[in-house]
Structures are given as C-alpha cells and as structure tokens.
Specification:
CATH superfamily: DNA integrity scanning protein, DisA, N-terminal domain
Radius of gyration: 14 Å
Strand content: 25-35%
Structural class: alpha+beta
Distance between the termini: 20 Å
CATH class: Alpha Beta
Number of helices: 3
CATH architecture: 3-Layer(aba) Sandwich
Number of strands: 7
Number of domains: 1
CATH topology: YojJ-like (1
Strand order of the largest sheet: 2-4-3-1-5-6-7
Helix content: 10-25%
Order of helices and strands: HEEHEEHEEE
Length: 144
C-alpha cells in the first residue's frame, strides 16, 4: 500500500509545475476517529478510478481545495479532502524545527503516531516526498 501511494505521489511530484501547492495525505483504518475538521464546505469531485488524477487536481494552487490534508482509507480511496488535521503533540515524536520544515510536514510526522493512522505522507517543493509511520520518517521512501 505504501509503495503504491509512493508511486502515485512520485508521479505527481515529478510532473508538477510551478503551480504545485504540495500535498498532505493521511491514510487511516479508523477515519471517524481522526482529529480532523473540514477547511471548506465544498466536496471535491474525485475520480473513483484514478487516485493519481484526483490528487494531481487537488495539488495545484488554482484549486481552492489544495489546503490541508486529504484523507485516504486503508484501500487508498479518497474519503475526505482539505481537512484540518490536528493531532496532539506526542512526547515520543522527535521534532527538529531547525531543519526548516513547515507545519504540514510536522503535523504529518506527529499525526502518524496516532493509533488510527496507518501512515501519512507529505509532498513539498523544498523536501520532495516524505512518508511517516509511528511518528518517524520512513527512510526508504525518501525522494531522491
């Protein structure tokens, strides 16, 4: 599942243009238990068959729904778009703000430690693709 999502995100990142706004992804087995709230009342019209295309359309600055985290089921189905994701900081998650990563990166790392989160991922122009699981970056998934 991680490898499949990584390939989707890698394709989006490799083919992104100057209007790429980045992505935040949360994959959950218990979506109803996530600390999320919609940023906008609008629901994105996702393609049921093409997660890559749906995420690509959500990741451009011209799309008002690009902000926040997009929530996927454990079958990699887009369940919620544009969500505030607000996990409570966890002592065991080591943060290093001196590295200059933004809020989306730090929230994805912290949020990946929640029991209902299988893993999270962020894609940004400055750091590429990062996956997190159990509050830690998954090194083998780092973008080269």
């Amino acid at each position: 599942m991680k490898e499949e999502l990584y390939q989707i995100l890698r394709d989006i990142y490799d083919n992104s243009g100057k209007n790429f706004a980045g992505l935040g992804i949360v994959v959950s087995k218990e979506i109803e238990a996530l600390p999320i709230s919609p940023i906008y009342n609008a629901k994105f019209n996702a393609s049921e068959s093409d997660l890559s295309e749906s995420l690509r359309r959500l990741s451009v600055i011209e799309n008002p729904l690009h902000d926040g985290f997009h929530v996927l089921s454990n079958r990699l189905e887009l369940i919620h778009n544009s969500q505030y994701f607000f996990p409570t900081p966890i002592k065991d998650v080591k943060l290093n703000p001196e590295l200059g990563y933004g809020t989306r990166y730090l929230v994805a790392k912290i949020g990946s430690a929640l029991p209902q989160v299988l893993f999270s991922a962020v894609v940004g122009n400055s750091y590429g693709i990062q996956f997190f699981e159990n509050g830690r970056e998954i090194e083998i998934m780092k973008h080269d």
